[in-house]
């Protein structure tokens, strides 16, 4: 049932339930239990709940270890200002993923090399990277393709600022801060996406509506449910990326 909720609501519900239940159990069962026992029980319960709720498997260690790691961090006696600064930094990089469910991770070198060979070598073309991160992919492709115009759009502040600064120093691409759902895809010959499973169905609806016949949609790693790609290219990088290609 929890799977139907936004992941943050599901995570919060599990942590709160485990926290309260661990406290209640120890209050009833033991007179001498302390913070350590409570944290261990809380972690075990939270891990168990995420397993029972059939959340994706990576949630189990996250729930299991969350409260124990909070306890460990408290023993370090670090000023709370550092936690605030760390939180603000993460917020500026990953804050929007709360809504988009697409965090920042970067295309590998193998993906860059495969894309270089897929792009037109002679004729002019335009390319957009949806959620262009720190601009690394755009820079690499612009370096190898004088015949292309390269564009990026990024919603997370820190990656955007990094990519903007890079673009100002002769990187051969332009990048905008914004939401790619508001971007008109008909202006591009190649649309590249490295997102997550969550937006892929909507992305296909938008691509079908806006992309010109003959243009190319490329997704790194994530398939469009129920739509077989025209081509897929398996790469031998650390995350075993696959590029999926759809010719509109
Ligand atoms: C997996 S990263 C890919 C980064 C880069 N394209 C690459 O391949 O190295 C996805 C990026 O998309 C951005 N993003 C997610 N949803 C977005 C949206 N609706 N509009 C703009 N950027 C978005 C995220 O902030 C993140 O930086």
Care to describe what's here?
The protein has 248 residues and is α/β, with parallel strands linked by helices. It has two domains: 76 residues; 139 residues, Vaccinia Virus protein VP39 (Rossmann fold), CATH 3.40.50. It has nine helices and seven strands; from the N terminus they run H-H-H-H-H-H-E-H-E-H-E-E-H-E-E-E. A seven-stranded mixed beta sheet has the order 3-2-1-4-5-7-6, covered by helices on one side. Strand 4, helix 9 and strand 5 form a beta-alpha-beta unit. Helix 1 crosses helix 2 and helix 2 packs antiparallel against helix 3. The longest helix has 23 residues. It is elongated. The two termini are 37 Å apart. The mean pLDDT is 92. Bound molecules: S-adenosylmethionine.
Q: Quickly give the CATH architecture of the largest domain.
A: 3-Layer(aba) Sandwich
Supply the helix-strand structural class: alpha/beta
Strands in their spatial order, largest beta sheet = 3-2-1-4-5-7-6
* Percentage of residues assigned to helices: 40-55%
Number of discrete domains: 2
Key features?
elongated; binds S-adenosylmethionine; 7 strands; 2 domains; single chain; 7-stranded mixed beta sheet; 248 residues; alpha/beta; Rossmann fold; 9 helices
Can you give me a brief rundown of this structure?
With 248 residues, the chain is an alpha/beta fold. The protein has helices at residues 7-29, 35-52, 59-75, 80-94, 97-100, 109-118, 136-144, 157-168, 200-210; strands spanning 125-130, 148-154, 173-177, 190-193, 216-220, 231-234, 242-247. Strands 3-2-1-4-5-7-6 form a seven-stranded mixed beta sheet, with helices on one face.
């Amino acid at each position: 049932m929890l799977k139907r909720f936004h992941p943050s609501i599901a995570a919060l519900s599990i942590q709160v339930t485990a926290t309260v239940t661990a406290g209640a159990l120890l209050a009833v069962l033991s007179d001498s239990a302390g913070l350590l026992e409570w944290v261990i029980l809380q972690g075990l319960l939270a891990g168990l709940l995420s397993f029972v709720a059939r959340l994706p498997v990576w949630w189990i260690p996250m729930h299991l270890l969350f409260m124990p790691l909070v306890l460990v961090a408290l023993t370090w006696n670090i000023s709370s200002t550092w936690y605030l600064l760390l939180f603000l930094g993460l917020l500026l990089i990953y804050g929007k993923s709360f809504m988009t469910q697409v965090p920042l991770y970067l295309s590998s070198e193998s993906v860059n090399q495969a894309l270089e060979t897929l792009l037109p070598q002679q004729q002019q073309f335009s390319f957009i990277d949806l959620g262009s991160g720190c601009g690394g992919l755009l820079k690499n492709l612009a370096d190898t393709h004088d015949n292309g115009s390269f564009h990026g759009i990024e919603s997370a502040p820190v990656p955007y600022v990094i990519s903007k600064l890079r673009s100002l120093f002769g990187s051969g691409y332009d990048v905008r801060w914004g939401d790619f759902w508001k971007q008109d895809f008909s202006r591009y010959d190649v649309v590249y996406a490295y997102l997550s499973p969550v937006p892929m169905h909507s992305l296909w609806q938008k691509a079908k509506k806006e992309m010109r016949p003959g243009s190319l949609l490329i997704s790194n790693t994530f398939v469009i449910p129920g739509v077989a790609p025209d081509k897929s290219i398996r790469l031998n990088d650390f995350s075993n990326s696959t590029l999926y290609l759809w010719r509109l």
